[in-house]
């Protein structure tokens, strides 16, 4: 594997986060659906839940994608090339990217639960 391939693989998830975040911010799905947008049981409860979930998820995805790109670029610039292929480093970056996605779900679902509490 070359350094270019490694760099590309480290940037795939962050770039997807950025694209998905921009889509949810610029063109959020107007109606509740099963195909596009942040889709969970909680987000599909009402139109208010749906719209809030799209907004929060879009902002979080965009912000975390930008942060992940910065981290990947800094790692590629600052870490010696022979260490970049260390399986623990590669695995750590993958886990960190997955954690960002899980944290987004936790944050969005917590905000949606707050709406339910206020409605009662």
* Shape annotation: elongated
Q: Structural class, from secondary structure content?
A: mainly alpha
What's the multimeric state? single chain
- Radius of gyration of CA atoms, rounded to a whole number: 17 Å
- The H-and-E topology, N to C, reads as HHHH
**Count of extended strands:** 0
Average pLDDT figure = 91
Discrete helix count: 4
Largest sheet: none
Unreliable spans: none
N/C terminus separation: 56 Å
Any idea how many domains?
1
Helix percent reads: over 70%
Content of β-strand: under 5%
Describe the structure.
With 120 residues, this protein is an all-alpha fold. It has 4 helices and no strands. The protein has one domain (3-119). The protein has helices spanning 3-26, 47-78, 81-84, 87-119. Helix 1 (3-26) packs antiparallel against helix 2 (47-78) and helix 2 (47-78) runs antiparallel to helix 4. The protein is elongated. It starts with a helix and ends with a helix. The mean pLDDT is 91.
């Amino acid at each position: 594997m070359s350094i270019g391939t490694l760099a590309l693989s480290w940037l795939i998830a962050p770039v997807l986060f950025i694209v998905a975040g921009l889509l949810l911010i610029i063109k959020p799905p107007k109606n509740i659906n099963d195909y596009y947008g942040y889709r969970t049981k909680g987000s599909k409860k009402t139109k208010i839940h749906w719209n809030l979930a799209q907004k929060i998820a879009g902002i979080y995805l965009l912000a975390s994608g930008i942060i992940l790109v910065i981290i990947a670029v800094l790692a590629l610039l600052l870490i010696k090339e022979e260490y970049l292929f260390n399986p623990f480093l590669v695995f750590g970056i993958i886990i960190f990217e997955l954690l960002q996605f899980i944290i987004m779900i936790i944050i969005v679902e917590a905000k949606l639960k707050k709406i339910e509490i206020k409605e009662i």
